[in-house]
Amino acid sequence: MLAEILVCLDGSPLAERILPLAQRIACAKGATVILLRVLGNSEELSAEESYMRERAGVLNAPIRFLISPDPATAIIEELAKNPRAMPALTTHGRTPLGEALLGSVALKVIRGASRPVLLYRARSDSLTTPTKITTLVVALDGSEFSEKIVPSAVAM
């Protein structure tokens, strides 16, 4: 059962585009939206706190800060503490070559989460985010483990 949607924000307007989708799913599933921000060090906390409080106020959502030089690992560790949480991230849509060279937080979270991940590719040429999901992609690799997602996908 889904209890929390951890919306992972990085401070960019593009990352915020997932908020309407996360909120709609949370309402439909009776879950709580929690805004999550991973900071590289504690000195960044005061600068980021007002930004996060502003976003949280609009949604009436709690906020959570993590301190880590590796955002993906911090998110995965946070998920390990709560098996009823689903991460929600916006991908910046870099090219596969760029992701291979630079790494991708979203890709690392997908690989390490061991649960469904809400991933939205926001387009910089569109200012709106759909509030309804019309297509759901389920990646299967032929293993029994990967097939465990199918019932959740059907229910969604």
Secondary structure layout:
Blueprint: E1 4-9, H1 19-29, E2 32-39, H2 45-59, E3 63-67, H3 71-81, E4 85-91, H4 96-102, H5 105-113, E5 118-121, H6 144-147, H7 149-155
Helix pairs in contact: 3-5
Can you characterise this structure?
By secondary structure, the protein is of the alpha/beta class. The chain has 7 helices and 5 strands. It has a 5-stranded parallel β-sheet, with helices on both faces. The longest helix is centred in the middle third of the chain and has 15 residues, at 45-59. The termini are close together. The model has no long low-confidence stretch (mean pLDDT 85).
* Proportion in β-strands: 15-25%
Shape: globular
User: What structural category characterises the helix and strand content?
Assistant: alpha/beta
- Which range best describes the helical content: under 10%, 10-25%, 25-40%, 40-55%, 55-70% or over 70%? 40-55%
In summary, what is this structure?
With 156 residues, this protein is of the alpha/beta class. The protein has helices at residues 19-29, 45-59, 71-81, 96-102, 105-113, 144-147, 149-155, and strands spanning 4-9, 32-39, 63-67, 85-91, 118-121.
What distinguishing features does this structure have?
156 residues, alpha/beta, 5-stranded parallel β-sheet, 7 helices, 5 strands
